[in-house]
Design brief:
The protein is mostly helical and about 290 residues long. It has twelve helices and no strands. Helix 3 runs antiparallel to helix 10.
Length: about 290
């Protein structure tokens, strides 16, 4: 009996050792992957506090020898010296980003609900078209979009950035996949109680779709915040921060530090939104669920 127990104990120790070794390997793999993901952010911050003469030192250094905040001061000074103040660019970016994010979430959620829970002729064809649209980048239809926007008379206006960004095949596909997990019995029970489609969508289905909605908010906010309006917006008062940063980066070596400082400034809002939305996603997935 004692030999049997010893054998079992040795087998258990070997199994525990393998599990521990696997955990350590996964930890180091994730650590290395995290370093590679954080490195671009770190380099951007370091480049933003380097003087201009250190930006082109060879071999490049991963730290600033004489860190300075002159690049940030030059950024505000150079952008404020234009025809509109720096705060106007910030307002334009926030206005476009928040509008696009809100409308994209609303329309994607409503379209996904209809495609996932309503039966109508051609629903499978529409789903197929949405999946096919995921294969194409926006550059493929850029010329057609420009012609349509020109006919609508919205070129050189904020609507030129907002309207094309509202329709998102990825947003519709993401929400549809999530809403498809809702039991049909819940929808039928709501219909028996006299609820209409709009009420079912926003008061029954959407409160259970917070993880998908928060994920869509992250994607939509990031994409809208980085929208450039080089060929759509020509009036200085309607330009957004990415457009101004691209103009500063194209001004030559003297503006390289300013471009890096502006890139760090633009990095803050998406990171904040990601951290807030990620926490909501984790909390919702941990404390909620739907079962038949």
């Amino acid at each position: 009996m004692a030999k049997i127990n010893t054998a079992k104990l040795k087998a258990s120790n070997r199994s525990a050792g393998r599990k521990k070794g696997g955990t350590i390997a996964v930890f180091f793999f994730l650590l290395i992957t995290g370093i590679f993901m954080v490195m671009p952010i770190y380099l951007t911050i370091v480049m933003s506090v380097k003087p201009v003469e250190e930006l082109f030192v060879f071999p490049p250094k991963l730290y600033a020898i004489r860190p300075t905040l002159d690049n940030f001061r030059d950024m505000f000074d150079s952008l404020n010296s234009s025809r509109v103040p720096f705060s106007r660019y910030v307002f334009n970016s926030l206005y476009v980003t928040l509008t696009v994010t809100a409308l994209q979430c609303i329309f994607s959620a409503m379209a996904a609900f209809v495609l996932a829970k309503c039966r109508f002729p051609g629903s499978k064809a529409v789903n197929w078209i949405i999946v096919t649209a995921l294969l194409y980048q926006s550059n493929v239809i850029y010329i057609m979009q420009y012609i349509v926007m020109s006919r609508l008379g919205i070129i050189d206006k904020p609507l030129a950035l907002i309207l094309p960004s509202i329709a998102s095949p990825m947003g519709v596909f993401l929400m549809r996949q999530s809403i498809s997990q809702i039991p049909d019995s819940m929808i039928e029970a709501a219909k028996v109680d006299g609820a209409g489609l709009m009420r079912i969508c926003w008061q029954i289905v959407m409160p259970n779709q917070k993880p998908a909605l928060m994920t869509l908010v992250i994607f939509a906010f990031q994409a809208a915040w980085n929208l450039q309006a080089g060929s759509l917006i020509f009036q200085e008062q309607y330009k957004t921060l990415p457009t101004v940063v691209a103009q500063a980066a194209a001004s030559g070596i003297a503006k390289a530090g300013v471009a890096m400082a502006a890139a760090v400034f633009m990095l803050v809002p998406p990171v904040v939104v990601f951290m807030l939305a990620q926490r909501k996603v984790i909390e919702t997935m941990a404390y909620s669920g739907i079962k038949e």
